[in-house]
Structure prediction request, 366 residues.
Amino acid sequence: MISSLALACMLQAPAAGESTTFLFLRYLARHQRPDGSWGVRPAACTCPDEPKVAPACEAAKVAPLLAALGDEDPGRRDSAERELRSLGEPALPHLRAALEDPDPEVRGRCAVLCRRFELGARGGGDAELTGLALLVFLGAGFSQLSKDEFDGISFGTVVKKGLQWLMARQKETGAYDAEDPAGDAVATLALCESYGMTASQPLKEDAQKAIDRLVATPMDTARGLLWKGMALKSAELGELNFPRTAYESVEAIRDKGGDLAIAGTTVLSIFVRKNKSDARLADLRVLDPALLETETLYVGTLAAFQSDGPSGPLWNRWNASLKRRLIPSQRTHVGDCERGSWDARSFRGRLQATALNGMDFEFYYR
Prediction:
C-alpha cells in the first residue's frame, strides 16, 4: 500500500513530462453510469471505437497453419499458433470453422484464439465490467470509505455506487449473470476484495452468498477457473466461509491449453499452493507480453511479478516489454473524452482494456 500523500501526488493533473499512469482511474470515474455500473456508454461519452473493417484472410494462407496446430512437434504447434495470432481478427472465420476439427489439440488452440479475437469486440457484461472497474480502484487503495476527491469526483463514492449496483443486481442464488459464470467470478472477487479491505458488515452477507454460488458453479474454461481461484483466495483472506476442497476444482486450469492457462497456473500455484518452486512456473518464459491479449497480459503480469518481482530477471524482461506496449498506446491528450484509456473495438472493450491495463500499472505501487 502506498501512502495517501504519494497517491495524491500521482493523481494530480499531470504537467508536461509528468507521469500519466493514474489517468485511467479518472477515465473510469468519468465513465461510470449514474446507477453505479460500467458497461453501457454514458450519454455524454464521445470515445471513438476502432474501425471494424479488416482485410480478408485467404483460406489458403490459414489452412497449413491450422494443420500445424496438430503437429507432433510442440515447437511447430507453437510457431503456427504465433503466426495465426499475428494474422489477427481476419483469421477468425477460419478459426471458428476449425472448432469442428477432429483433433482435440487443434480445437483447443483454435478456441483460445477465437476468444482472444472476440474479446476485444465483446468486452464483457455489465457485472464483469463493473467488477473489473472496482478492482482497479480497490487496487489503488480506494474503498467505499475513501474521502479523496479528484477532478471534483469522490473515488470513495465511485466505489460505493459500484458496490451498491452489484449488490442490487445480485440474485437470490448469489449470481449476477447466470449466462457468464466467469464474469460472475470477477464480480464476486470485487465484492470479496472490498469486504476484505474494510470488513464492512453490509457487504458480508452478499459476499458470502456470491462465494457460496461460486463454489457450486463448475467452470470449464481457463478464465473461469482463474477468476474463481482468485475470488476464493480473496474470500479466504477475508475470512469468509467455504470448504477448502473448493480449491481442488481450479487445479484443472493446468490442463487447459493456451497462454492464459500458463499464466493462470502460475498465479494459482502461488496464491493457492504458495509454491514458487513448481516447475510449471518456468512456462512463463515462453510468453511474450507484446503478443498477449489484454486479459492474458494482466494475468501474465501478475504471475511474473508474484514469481520473480520486483527485481528478478523474468520480471525485468516482462516489465520492459509491458512498458513498451502500454505507455505509448494510452490516450493522454488533454480534453479528449477517452483520455486515460486504451483503444478497443467497442466501448465495452475500451472499458475492459483500461481496467486490465490499469491494474498492470498498479504493481509498481504495491
Q: What stands out?
A: Residues 287 and 365 are 24 Å apart (CA to CA). Residues 59-118 form one domain. The two ends are 5 Å apart (CA to CA).
